[in-house]
Specification:
Layout (H helix, E strand, L loop, with lengths): L2 E5 L5 E3 L19 H12 L4 H13 L1 H15 L2 E6 L1 H7 L3 H16 L4 H9 L1 H4 L1 E8 L5 E7 L4 E4 L4 E4 L10 E2 L5 E5 L4 H26 L3 E6 L7 H17 L8 E6 L10 H16 L19 H34 L7 E6 L6 H13 L6 H8 L38 H12 L1 H10 L9 H20 L2 H20 L1
Antiparallel strand pairs: 1-2, 3-12, 4-5, 4-9, 6-7, 7-8, 10-11
Helix pairs in contact: 1-8, 2-3, 2-8, 3-6, 3-10, 3-11, 8-10, 14-17, 15-16
Length: 506
């Protein structure tokens, strides 16, 4: 569990964990929630009272199924993005930038952002601002003043000092506009005025009320009313009626029974106009409004039910990737302006900034297809910039000297992956083993790059501090690798081919 250097009332670091806050644990804001309460919280937020509203947002994201799914899908799409340092092509052309300076600044930013141990998790947290309205990352520094960690601080720790638009930190997470004003140079803050949870909280009340009314309707009309029609000769006395009433009770409880001659059961009110009730249509309308809001108005998402259920198509996933691509660009600009730009100014005073920090989703999940496409464009005489190649591949690449050679013969193993045998090369020229190795290398690139920096061939042994830092980062590297799918997909493809070859051989 990560802690912040910000101190609480007891003088100890604040633990940013909702389950460890006595004043919040056990308070479910959804209990007895009314539309007036939601509107009151929204009005309060306009004057800086944020904690209670964002705590409500947390519960809506947990309990409202469409909002939950939207949050999960959008976070997953952001997690598939990759960071890189790319050249500012327009700036380079305008100032006739020195290629040596480009390389120096690229190496500098790669080292700078490579030191941050939770970079992927940090930009995913900034993505939560699209739902909750804002998100804060607190910069943590090492002894040299480098940012090495970006701590996500939950929204309910903040208020706004009204009428000044200045965030204050409330250590006790109370709903207040008073607290310690934060120094924004130590924070990365993302704000989204038209956030999703505002609509989700309002619609949650409508959904809940409609659900309760629907349940009441079903309880009243879902089970038919049963009346016995008794001929005179079948119930001549009170004892006869009592006996028939007992038979009816048995009939209703067991769902079956035998009536004596002269007695007929009549059913009334069974699902009277059930298909014409407003509840299904209203609930569907709420779902559609949330899907449209959470997908930027993509009407294609409504082609299959809500568009985000189990039947969602590849096209739906592409929508979330498209949203993530735009969101990643905005987040990358925030991070670069907060960390990269001032660091470049200090390291290269008076020099133009020719590179920038970038976050982008790989344009293809198939590394081999993307690489082959780039190579085909190059051979056809089309220039593909290094920045665009980085964007398409999702990881840093270096320009090669000389002309691009001819394509390798089908069935051969790429030389950049040494030690691989060609025994698995298929008739179409693909090499599943080589592809799998390349995919695994892609998934684990942060660990490999960090290890290469520590064990660089520069004639010196790594220091104890460098080794300890590398070991500390390994759990995060492994977590990142486990969240990626390139290696898994490639390995499964290799096993499928091997199985098919084995069956064919038999």
């Amino acid at each position: 569990m990560l802690t912040s250097p910000l101190l609480g009332p007891d003088g100890k670091p604040i633990v940013h964990d909702a389950d460890e806050m006595p004043n919040r644990v056990g308070w479910n804001p959804l209990r007895g929630l009314t539309l007036n309460r939601v509107l009151s919280l929204l009005d309060g937020a306009e004057t800086g009272y944020l904690a209670d509203l964002t705590w409500l947002y947390r519960y809506v994201e947990k309990r409202e199924p469409i909002t939950t799914t939207l949050a999960e899908r959008r976070e997953a799409a952001l997690s598939r993005c990759r960071w890189a340092v790319v050249k500012e092509e327009e700036v380079v052309r305008r100032v006739n930038g020195d290629p040596v300076l480009v390389d120096e600044q690229t190496a500098f930013l790669n080292d700078l952002f490579g030191k941050i141990d939770n970079l992927n998790a940090a930009w995913r947290w900034l993505g939560s601002a699209a739902f909750r309205g804002y998100a804060h990352l607190e910069k943590h520094y090492d002894a040299a003043g480098n940012v090495v960690h970006l701590e996500p601080v939950p929204q309910w720790f903040f208020g706004l000092m009204f009428p000044r638009h200045q965030y204050c930190y409330n250590a006790d997470a109370q709903n207040s506009t008073h607290g310690d004003p934060i120094e924004e140079r130590h924070w990365i803050i993302r704000e989204c005025e038209r956030h999703i949870d505002e609509l989700a909280a309002i619609l949650y009340v409508g959904r809940n009320m409609s659900w309760k009314d629907w349940q009441l309707y079903v309880s009243r009309h879902g089970v038919p009313n049963i009346f016995l029609e008794v001929a005179k000769e079948a119930a001549a006395t009170d004892a006869d009626y009592a006996r028939l009433a007992g038979t009816l009770r048995q009939f209703v409880s067991a769902g079956k029974g035998v009536l004596p001659p002269g007695v007929k059961a009549n059913l009334f009110g069974a699902g009277q106009g059930a298909e014409k009730t407003p509840f299904p249509g209203f609930m569907d309308y709420i779902d559609r409004m949330l899907v449209l809001r959470g997908t930027g108005g993509k009407l294609t998402m409504l082609s299959e039910a809500t568009g985000i259920g189990q039947g969602a198509t590849t096209a739906h996933e592409a929508v979330f990737d498209e949203i993530a691509s735009a969101e990643a660009s905005a987040i990358a600009e925030l991070i670069h302006n907060a960390i990269g730009e001032p660091a470049l100014s200090r390291a290269f005073p008076g020099q133009p900034q020719l590179v920038r920090f970038s976050i982008a989703r790989p344009m293809s999940s198939n590394l081999k297809e993307t690489a082959e496409g780039l190579l085909a464009l190059r051979r056809a005489g089309w220039a593909v910039s290094r920045a665009k190649a980085v964007e398409m591949l999702g990881f840093e690449v270096e320009e090669t000297a000389g002309e691009v050679g001819p394509a390798a013969a089908p069935g051969t193993v790429p030389q950049q992956i040494p030690g691989m045998a060609a025994s698995r090369a298929s008739q179409d020229g693909s090499d599943p083993e080589a592809e799998t190795v390349a995919a695994v290398l892609l998934d684990t690139r942060e660990a490999i790059q960090s290890a290469l920096r520590v064990f660089a061939d520069d004639g010196r042994a790594p220091t104890e501090e460098e080794l300890r830092t590398l070991l500390d980062k390994l759990p995060e590297f492994l977590r990142l690798a486990n969240t990626r799918t390139a290696g898994q997909v490639s390995f499964e493809r290799m096993m499928e081919q091997a199985f098919a070859e084995g069956v064919e051989a038999q």
